[in-house]
Design goal:
Layout (H helix, E strand, L loop, with lengths): L1 E4 L19 E4 L6 H20 L8 H15 L4 E6 L2 H13 L4 E17 L10 E16 L1
Parallel strand pairs: 2-3
Antiparallel strand pairs: 1-4, 3-5, 4-5
Helix pairs in contact: 1-2
GO molecular function: ribonuclease MRP activity; ribonuclease P activity; RNA binding
Keywords: Nucleus, tRNA processing
Organism: Calycina marina
Length: 150
């Protein structure tokens, strides 16, 4: 018997311009994901969260209430977070990214552990057709890091 591992199932990558309540900003990290580009991507997503929280300001009316509303929205917008997920060998990479972000003063880092189901196909040695074999579900560990603005 031979085991063929399927890729893990996950939601499609969300647009950076939509709110997290509609679709959370999740980045799936693999062992070969470059460190620097991941840091830049997270910073970009955090800046989009900040700009959505502040909202547009028009200069036609009094600025006082708009600034107060912007500050309140900024506090409410800090609940949005960018989520990094990694399984297996990618857990080390996700931890390295989390340690980097913990050193930054303007963000809050939350680390969560869990497990995710993965589907494997069991096929006979002489038979390469996946459809005729049986499938089994295994659990693999997952590390999830939430990064949000202070």
């Amino acid at each position: 018997q031979k085991i063929c591992k399927r890729p893990l199932l996950h939601a499609p990558i969300a647009s950076p311009y939509t709110t997290s309540s509609i679709s959370p900003k999740t980045l799936y990290i693999s062992p070969s994901t470059p460190f620097a580009s991941t840091i830049k991507r997270v910073r970009t997503l955090l800046s989009h969260i900040e700009s959505r929280a502040s909202g547009p300001i028009s200069f036609s009316s009094k600025l006082g209430p708009q600034i107060t509303a912007g500050i309140k929205a900024r506090r409410d917008g800090s609940k949005e977070e960018v989520i990094l997920k990694g399984t297996g060998r990618a857990i080390e990479k996700v931890l390295g990214i989390a340690v980097y972000w913990q050193g930054q003063a303007d963000v809050v880092v939350r680390v969560r552990t869990g497990s995710v189901g993965a589907v494997d196909d069991v096929v006979e040695n002489g038979n390469d057709e996946v459809e005729t074999g049986e499938s089994r579900v295994r659990r693999t560990s997952c590390l999830e890091v939430g990064i949000s603005l202070r």
